[in-house]
Amino acid sequence: MSRTESDAGARPNVQFRQVGKPLTRTDAPGKVTGRTPYAGDYVMPNTLHMRVLRADVASARLTRLDVSKARALKGVACVLTAADMPDRTSATDIPGQTGQKRLDTDQPILVKDRVRYFGEPLALIAAETRDIADHAAELIEFELEPIPGVYDPLEALKPGAALVYGADNIVAERKIRKGDIEAGFAEADLVIENTYKTPFQEHAFLEPEVGLAWVDENDVVNIRVSTQVIEHFRPIADAIGVPHNKVRVRGALVGGGFGGKEDLTVEVYLALLAKHTGRPVRLEYSREDSFVGHGKRHPFVLTYRTGVTNEGKITAMDVQMIADAGAYVFLSPYVVLYALVAAPGPYRVDNLNVFARAVATNNMYTSAFRGFGALQACAAYEQQMDEIAGTLGIDRLELRRRNFLKTGEPMSTGFVPPSAIWTEQCAEQAWAALGEPAPVQGPIRTGRGLACYQQSYGRLTFLHDTSEAWVGVEMDGTVVVRSGVTDIGAGQISALGQIAVEVLGVTLDNVVIYNSDSAVTPLAGTTTATRALYMTGNAAKQAAETLRARLVERAAREFGVEAGDVDMAFNEVFVIDRPEKTMPLVNLVRICAAEGIHRSELAIFRAPFGDFLDPETGQGQAHPDYAYGAHAVEVSVDVETGEVEVLKSIAAHDVGQCINPAAVEGQIQGGAQNGQGYALSEEMLYEEGRLVTPSFSEYLMPTAMDMPRVECIILESRSGVGPFGAKGIGEPAMTAVAPAIANAVADAIGVRVFEMPITPERVVRALQQRDAS
Amino acid sequence: MYAPFELDIPTDLPGALAALANGAGETVLPIAGGTNLIVDIRARRERPDRMVGLGEVDELKGMEFGPERIAIGGRTTVSDLLRAPEIAREAPALIDAARLFGGLMVRNTGTVAGNIASGSPAADLVPPLLTLDAELTLASANATRTMALDDYYLGYKEDARTPDELITRIAWPRLPANAVNSFYKLARRKGDAITVTGVAVTLAAADGRCTRARIALCSVAPVVFRARQAEALLEGRALTPALIDEAAAEAAAAARPIDDIRASADYRRHTALALTRRLVGQAWDRLA
Ligand SMILES: Cc1cc2nc3c(=O)[nH]c(=O)nc-3n(C[C@H](O)[C@H](O)[C@H](O)COP(=O)(O)OP(=O)(O)OC[C@H]3O[C@@H](n4cnc5c(N)ncnc54)[C@H](O)[C@@H]3O)c2cc1C
């Protein structure tokens, strides 16, 4: 790992004591020693065990559902079907604070009459043991009368296509109309058009969905669950028909999210059965349940038509995107919005048309996944850049250099990102780090690829995102942080601790963080959209700074100096450059306590609030800010078998300010693996909507044997809108990996595979087609 | 959910064979590592009434390295193979297969006899053993017999073993002096993946001629098989690229692959040819 610090244009370096150091994360010891309980580890006496019965075809009418035998089975406490509940739906439109909802497309909690996707839930069972619940599921009789479905978004757009719901299958349409596209193409010496396809992807978190729910003495439904979003307590309450203050979601440390635990998963089922039985209920998905139980990454078909001059300057770009939304809406409208905004990538394109659509099919519904549409756009625009470079005969990095969006320039939506744009620095460093090329041997060819990206961090500004954090100093000088933020394994809460102790001048082992409880920790919003550090980090910093100002003010009086002369570090409060004027923090805290000076602070951070983008032109501010970086790889390709091996994988990201470099590197390593699987080996195959790769023996993520050493180059422009100038790395770490690999494969074999994953068979077929023509 | 079953845990071979023998009216299955069987039970492809655990049967463990022959017990695990330097010398193809076999947990518990008896067309240890001319010892409570591994498979998941028999030993002759033995596993990823096309080759040479050719393929037909016509083309001749091409085409023609989620039949045929050509070519280069 290497780090490059700020140079011209960025804010000056600051002396940090805690931030920017690879400290042992606060959550590490518990995880390493196995003491950390995950949501599935919580037990309660008298618990019932749940099972969800699912449809085994993708498009059908439910003509009969008879649960009488299951109900009669000894040990079965409750079986619920749609007939047992009012017409309630469970919406995961936009989680959190906006309250937007589209009733006609929300998913019914249980199938009433129409099955729209394979695995749609038919009935919920609670029994004394899991075995009894499984047995009960077998006793449920149901008949599904097939209805013709539609399984390809392009087919779904055709007149006369089977309707998934509504009047047509269009879930969302977004546009950008910027500059003068005709003039732009007229200016071009060359127009290049290609269509790229990206696949479904499974989140494949280590910890499948799991939760435990019970009704407490105040009639509050408590749900201990593995989730990225505790603020689903509101839609859960709506779904089961109780007031919002009667549902409490208590998270736990999460064994991976990646967007797959952004929507509701098991919560509503748990809440319903806890309510119905009055007993604690537990639901744990098997891996197979998990494969059919949550939404996937949207497959996209992206057509890029790019006008360029002979010198390689892009004059116009027309982009058509179609995303498979699957059978229900979920976050599709927002995913295509992200794809729309990201369409030109980190390049300056003044004449731009983008048309992005999400289309309903009877495939598994698709929703959030790390990169959220912007990643699919990158998969296409970066392959298109290489196609342009190849056609013009311009070096691939040089072509990019001639088009990079620079700091202070307007992006696709006309918005000028407030931070520094260091794409070029990242690209150069990643490319250079590839070093000497590996030798070519017989049928084994080698090739290199580069991809650059632009990825937002923070949620859409029209969502008016806020986040709260509370910071307090105890009587002995130890620090407590409270914030509702969920920690999905990336070190979210540890970063809050690191920020708070930086400001308060104590060390990380002196902080305890309470998080992820919708009733008692200040609500912090979701851990999604690369927003947790940006939003909650800013809130924690704000709270800590206000508190610090109060403490320092009191200390200054004690020392008889100005507040500006006082500093706090390593649990001491002192006058700068006067070593004799010092006192332990604990003494200062006692003085404050004796005088009733408030030793805690609750802060709210508000992201920039914006309006929706102009519906016709797509112009406006979509996000608070953007992150930029690059990924470079070298691959070998066996031209006889089509096998691809990634030999070198190098990431260079401007993270703004690293809070914990070890955690940043963790994200980058994981992103490199996640993106490599997406590019090469992970494949979800559906036959008429039925998943035929429902386990890890068919769905293949890269193993340690498939991964090269991943080199991480961390750049710090200190220009971001997060705490201390931080940007974000959760999603960005993955965005450019797959197109870099695709470009390297094309470089190695001289022909492009336009559809991911680039399987050995697709490589062989591309070579055969080239040889045949 | 598992259907209930009885589990016997005999502590010696006669006990195990007796336990398998008195299974009138029930489905009785031996279980070694369980890395196939437990998966099958969970998926309800197998519903044994009783299982006979082989974990405590020491007679099924161990390896013997005789002057002419090598023999290993049926309960030898994949990791046992990897830990034996003699196997690396005497059966390099077996090591090629073992190194890319499952993940560490599966290698530590999965056994050679289990791999053979599973009858899977994708059993990775079988092509190497076929190219080594391996022979199986099958024992039941009343009889013991030996048979060539090559005669063991009768059809898709059909074999010559009777339900009361155990594969107790796998034995093969030491490789001749000037010989190469190798295996290539082509899969959709390197670690822990089911083979898409697997090819094993043994080639021996003397005086510039090929004195022995063995070619075996997995995952490209209902059973793992030897490409006898390809072998016959090579034996007794000095190999040329054209001859190797021809043999590889023979091997691919003998394949009867299917389309499945991992690959198409066409791709399997294509790679069966390419890999046979490559392995035979490389072996011949090393022998020359
Ligand atoms: C995650 C995973 C990865 C895998 N990867 C691979 C791989 O890369 N390559 C590969 O080839 N296989 C692979 N397998 C399959 C399996 O691990 C192997 O086939 C293994 O060798 C089976 O051995 P076992 O001892 O576990 O057999 P078991 O599951 O115990 O038994 C398998 C069958 O053989 C029978 N049997 C067992 N022992 C004997 C005996 N001594 N005599 C007669 N019959 C017997 C059983 O009754 C059963 O029918 C994998 C399996 C898993 C779960």
Q: Could you walk me through the main structural features you see in this protein, from its secondary elements to its overall organization?
A:
The complex is a heterodimer of chains A (773) and B (288). Chain A is an alpha+beta fold and 773 residues long. Among the domains of chain A are: 415-457 and 624-773, Aldehyde Oxidoreductase, domain 4, CATH 3.30.365; 466-606, Aldehyde Oxidoreductase, domain 4, CATH 3.30.365.10. Helix content of chain A is 26%, strand content 26%. Chain A contains 19 helices and 31 strands. In chain A, a hairpin with a 5-residue loop joins β16 (300-308) and β17. In chain A, α6 (233-240) crosses α7 (267-277) and α13 runs parallel beside α14 (532-559). Mean pLDDT of chain A is 95; it is low at 6-13 and 95-103. In chain B, the strands form four sheets. Chain B has a five-stranded antiparallel sheet with strand order 4-5-10-6-7. Chain B is α+β, with helices and mostly antiparallel strands. Chain B has three domains: 6-53, Uridine Diphospho-n-acetylenolpyruvylglucosamine Reductase, domain 2 (2-Layer Sandwich), CATH 3.30.43; 58-173, Uridine Diphospho-n-acetylenolpyruvylglucosamine Reductase, domain 3 (2-Layer Sandwich), CATH 3.30.465; 179-287, Enolase-like, domain 1 (2-Layer Sandwich). Chain B has eleven helices and 14 strands. In chain B, α9 (228-234) packs antiparallel against α10 (241-254) and α10 (241-254) runs antiparallel to α11 (265-287). Chain B starts with 5 loop residues before the first strand and ends with a helix. Chain B is 33% helix and 26% strand. The model of chain B has no long low-confidence stretch (mean pLDDT 96). Chain B has helices at 13-21, 37-42, 78-82, 85-90, 92-99, 104-109, 112-117, 126-131, 228-234, 241-254, 265-287, and strands spanning 6-8, 28-31, 50-53, 63-65, 69-73, 135-139, 144-148, 153-155, 158-159, 166-173, 179-187, 195-206, 209-218, 225-226. The chains are: A alpha+beta (773), B alpha+beta (288). The A-B interface holds A 130-131, 134-135, 443, 640-643, 645, 680-681, 685, 692-693, 697-698, 700, 702-706, 759-761, 764 and B 1, 100, 103, 186, 188-194, 196-197, 261-264, 267, 270-271, 274-275, 278. Flavin-adenine dinucleotide binds next to β2, α2, α6, α7 and β10 of chain B.
